[in-house]
Structure formats: C-alpha cells, structure tokens
UniProtKB/TrEMBL annotation:
Stretches assigned to the Response regulatory domain: 10-126
Keyword Protein transport: no
Single Gene Ontology BP annotation: phosphorelay signal transduction system
UniProt keywords, alphabetically: Phosphoprotein
Name of this chain's protein: Response regulator transcription factor
InterPro entries assigned: Bact_response_regulator, CheY-like_superfamily, Sig_transdc_resp-reg_receiver
Modified residues (4-aspartylphosphate): D59
UniProt entry tagged with the keyword Phosphoprotein: yes
Amino acid sequence: MHVIPGNLPAVVVIEDDLYMQGILSQCLSENFSPVLFDNGMDAFAYLQEGNIPDIIISDLNTPLLNGIQFLEQVRSSGFFGSIPVIILSGVENTDTKIKCLEAGADDFIVKPFNPRELAARLKMILKRAGKLTVN
C-alpha cells in the first residue's frame, strides 16, 4: 500500500497502561492513524475482522495475549505475517530483546522512549516495507 498525502498509515497499538496509551496516541496522531487496544486478544480479533494496519506496536506485557504470544500469532498467519511489528517494553534485557527479534519483531523499543525516535523508527520500517512513499 502506498500512502497518498493526507492519508495516514494505520497503526494498531496494544498497550494496557492508560497513561502510556495517552502518550502513544498523542505522539502518533500527527503522522499516523492509531487504533488502540488494551490487550492482544482484542487486537488480534480486530485483525481477524479484516482490519489490516500498516504497522503494529505492542507492549510486551499485556493481558490475555502478551506481546510475544501476539507476535507469534501474527507471524504464523498467512494473512498478517508481513505486517511489521514493534515491541515496546519497560524491561531493558538483552535476552528479552533477542527473544522478541527471533520471534519476528521488526524492532524493540525500551520505555520510556523519545516520541520523535519512535516516529522515526516507524517511518523507517514502513519505508523499508514499501508502505510509505511520503515523508
């Protein structure tokens, strides 16, 4: 999908902390169209309803379906397997990062994060995936 000026890339955000949801919504709304969920199960159901976002951001520790479980579900699906996924975590642990990347994450970002850095990483991944053709 190529983005036409005025159409913002769709981002599914899975984050159970209300404060962090607000931060993510605010920092993404300028350049993206975020859809927020507080658990991976509801987000996966949203995908199964035919809603295919351009990229997904998932917190590592969410209820019902955590970030790794969600990522494994997405990667094992023929329909969703190519959607880029970024994992967010408050845990800065090399083993956790490696586990996420090996499970198919496109990036791993530690909270707290710089909103400009998050936006830059999203744009880079979308450009690499051929889903973003404008700045």
